[in-house]
Amino acid sequence: MLSEDLLIWDYLTYAGGAAGVGIIVFGLLRRSSALVILGFVLPSGALALGASQTVVLKFDVVVVEQPGGTMTWRTVRQFVGGEYTFRDGSRARITKPAGGPIGTVVVNDSDRRLQIIRVSYTSTPRIPGPGGRHLVADIASGKTGTSLERVEHFGPENEGPPETIKSLSSFDTLDWLAW
């Protein structure tokens, strides 16, 4: 089970809204247009400040499970940190991978070993399809692993990654979670 931490910035929006309503009411009672304007501006400022602080903390979490022998996964986007409780009762702390602006944490709650494989693609005519691949993480059962990119493809290693991907650049990579 994945549980997410609450940040102090999560409460800033609510606090700003409550303070704004209070200032508006006080401004109306005092007949002060400056206080009424401040009451409308304060929640917007609190929202902007809170969003600017939490956006750098967010990352993706992929939870892989194996109910009834079938591999399943789910992706939680914009996670800010927390804890995962494995089916055996052990726990793992989930934090943003250091060193990158995106990042993905993979939680392996299955019986199989998982791998995050980075596949390189290029549009150069002499190198069609996957241009190379290297292992980013090897994740044992009941453990977590990380990638500094977003994991975008899932599947058995014997099926392989997609032959082509859509990209705006002439060279791109794809992180593939394989079992």
The total strand number stands at 11
N-to-C order of helices and strands:
EHHEEEEEEEEEE
The low-pLDDT segments are: 125-129
Structural class: alpha+beta
The biggest sheet amounts to: 4 strands, mixed
Q: Give Rg in angstroms.
A: 23 Å
Distance between the termini: 21 Å
Number of domains: 2
Which whole number gives the mean pLDDT? 84
Net shape: elongated
The helix content, as a percent range, equals 25-40%
Number of helices: 2
Strand line-up of the largest beta sheet: 3-2-6-9
Oligomer: single chain
Our estimate of the beta-strand percent is: 35-45%
How would you characterize the overall build of this protein?
The protein has two domains: 2-55; 58-178, no CATH class. β2 and β3 form a beta hairpin. The chain starts with a strand and ends with a strand. With 179 residues, it is α+β, with helices and mostly antiparallel strands. It is 25% helix and 38% strand. The strands form three sheets. The protein has a four-stranded mixed beta sheet, with no helix packed on it. It is elongated. The protein has helices at 8-30, 33-54, and strands at 2-4, 59-65, 72-79, 82-85, 91-94, 104-109, 114-122, 130-139, 144-147, 151-155, 171-178.
